[in-house]
Design brief:
Two copies of one chain form a homodimer. Chain A is α+β, with helices and mostly antiparallel strands and 458 residues long. In chain A, 37% of the residues lie in helices and 20% in strands. Chain A has four domains: 90 residues, Uridine Diphospho-n-acetylenolpyruvylglucosamine Reductase, domain 2; 118 residues, 2-Layer Sandwich (Uridine Diphospho-n-acetylenolpyruvylglucosamine Reductase, domain 3), CATH 3.30.465; 112 residues, 2-Layer Sandwich (Alpha-Beta Plaits), CATH 3.30.70.3450; 84 residues, Alpha-Beta Plaits (2-Layer Sandwich), CATH 3.30.70.2740. In chain A, strand 8 and strand 9 form a beta hairpin. In chain A, helix 1 runs antiparallel to helix 2, helix 7 runs antiparallel to helix 13 and helix 13 packs antiparallel against helix 14. The longest helix of chain A has 17 residues. The interface between A and B is large, with 85 and 85 residues.
Amino acid sequence: MSDTRSLLAEAVGAEHVLAAGEVPADYGHDEALGVAAGRPDFVVRPGDTTQVAAVLRIAGERGLRVTARGSGTGLSGGAIPVPGGLVVSFERMNRVLEIDAANSVAVVQPGVTLAELDAAAAAHGLVYPVFPGEMGASLGGTIATNAGGMRAVKYGVTRQHVLGVEAVLASGEVLRAGGKHVKNASGYDLTQLIVGSEGTLALVTEAIVRLYPRLPYQGTVLAPFGSLDQVTAAVPGIVGSGIGPLILEYVDTVTMAAITAAQDIDLGVPAAVRDKTLAYLVVMVEERTEERLAAVEAELAELLAGLGAGDVYVLPDPAARRLIEAREKAFWAAKNAGADDIVDTVLPRAAMAGFLAEVGELVGSGGGGLVMGCGHAGDGNVHLAVFQADAEARSALMHGIFAAAAARGGAVSGEHGIGTAKKRYFLELADPVAVGLMLRIKQAFDPGGILGPGVLFE
Amino acid sequence: MSDTRSLLAEAVGAEHVLAAGEVPADYGHDEALGVAAGRPDFVVRPGDTTQVAAVLRIAGERGLRVTARGSGTGLSGGAIPVPGGLVVSFERMNRVLEIDAANSVAVVQPGVTLAELDAAAAAHGLVYPVFPGEMGASLGGTIATNAGGMRAVKYGVTRQHVLGVEAVLASGEVLRAGGKHVKNASGYDLTQLIVGSEGTLALVTEAIVRLYPRLPYQGTVLAPFGSLDQVTAAVPGIVGSGIGPLILEYVDTVTMAAITAAQDIDLGVPAAVRDKTLAYLVVMVEERTEERLAAVEAELAELLAGLGAGDVYVLPDPAARRLIEAREKAFWAAKNAGADDIVDTVLPRAAMAGFLAEVGELVGSGGGGLVMGCGHAGDGNVHLAVFQADAEARSALMHGIFAAAAARGGAVSGEHGIGTAKKRYFLELADPVAVGLMLRIKQAFDPGGILGPGVLFE
């Protein structure tokens, strides 16, 4: 082991190698609920791609299993190392290398946070439109999980914005895929394969991501509905209108009460309306001019009223901004309230009401516990907080929830990733032919099986 | 061979098997220039997924190499069979299985043409936004090549719209990947890997594709520029404005003269302006209302004037529509003019002017011949028609063109695919680590190497 340490020190510098006893607890976990932390034998903090390649060569030779780490804000345990494992932390590879406004792209290192990239892009009137609710997340981590977030209904998810990567393979070879071009029909899209692979195929050391014009005017409309059926029925009407919402969220009344109380927000909804409300739609639009914004807000209000909303509120700016921020912190509200697990399943958006009704039945018919939620209604991406302290009952309830989504053509995770936390549900419910192919792809990239141990597969 | 015929007849019905002597010449080629046609031993026309699976099992057992065929409109020779090979033609699997407006998706068989899907989507006020210029192309073919087209600057290319596939593997196993959901973080994205794989990994038997609101108002602005530098410099200004053009094309003056003459279109550009023009920008916008369209057209005209356009013409409808149609037929205009090969290279859009200048030098400095073109300026996707009858000189010129794109961070093909026609340039210029991985992925999907013989790889 001391031999391994000196090899790693040679690769990245002695001051950037931590061995078992010296590793702070933070390197052993991410933010996933109910997953035990790991204890790696080593943490290394490489400073560049050459160092990452050297580390992976050592890991390959020594049979060390490698867990990549960005900011540790993941929600699926994808950053939890295995005993005896090696954590490659990208905290030092944290530079925005270039904002190329002429090509509308940024070139970033994996340790850059979304907040840092946002600030760099804003200086050029541009935006990287992935806002998963945690601006401390690293670009590397969001690429690993194919992060989504509220604005995906307009802009799409991470995979739509990653144009190319430099990545180190398990062999230590450096791969370059894609580039500063928005289309490509020249062989298999390795960039797309690496996006969402949760650190199991290669370690991304640089990424080229798309930027978009930063539209200056934003407006938010809140619409209470009397039933989830009505909410679900309203969504295609909004998407189909061509208004192109930036955000299209549903929030159930329990969650709305929790997040507004946590942030001390008054939405100005009278008690008489609140009492008849089972869920809210929050619709945000953005435009280039104030005139266009005013016109779209008015159009949206009329549309929502026609789609069965109990009332419609165009929120003034501070309340609107604070509501979106509170919604982004829904995970923390759930955690603070003692949630035992979370779900971010995705399904055809028109199937959401039926799915949520079935979830209610699962809870009512002996599953027990409490399930509350909100979600990206335009994307069919449902976020649930599950309160059920009994591990066995919780596991059965979680299984029932994912099975209900799968039966409607859904998938286990829409944006958090499978990691270690949702692996058993994923492996139970996924198409076995697909899982077989994934294992063969894993083998093609990483024949020694050193990358992302315990993530996705057993 | 008669034994193979009877096995295939058992699989798809005797009337849907053609053996060597009976195979019409059309099954031996697509629309690629300068590529010799092939002569397959068999053509089969399966009617459903089970039949495709049965055919691939027979092919695997008999060592028959399989070329998938949609409408045969490809431009890279991807549908050209090898001697002794088997063509799987999807002409009978040509149904739009579902237009699901509530989820904004269509479920289609691979033999459906873009024109057929467009008609089906239009009936619901929706659009499938891939318009590669050939509406007779099949969905299967466009998925195989990750087709782009003029509207990609707004909507993105095929891969952004394919949410899921059913596909038959070389083993005959049926894979289901993705679904009617727009985001997914549940394992490797096999759908994205299959899109653009040109029939070398699996045969797509069903696809779930995204549809979008069909915006009713479209306007077209034509702007002549005095130099390609000016055109290239104007593009980021248009994209960065947030106007969100539907189409952003450049057309050089030679090509503009050829396509307008071929279609007998008068654009109303005075001779005095034409004489000072080296290239045109054609910008199309679409909006939900007439008012918004008028406002955006005015804004665009002002913007273009500020960006150095020699003049700006808001084209009236018939001329506008006919110009776009003529631009879509640029390939045919080039072919009729006797073009010997075509290029659809992609590069960072800001690098286009320098690239085109270098192409001009290649032609001038002894490469000889004539190169003219147009392209998707917003996407950095350059279409060139190459006139050089001498095969050796043409090969050197083509190599020089692709090398000039690669040196600027580009790739050989932006939307046509590599097929058999561009393979040698691709293999020469691609990252060897990437090609090595692609070959291992190919092996993971198709260990016997029966799918897409001669496509992408040797």
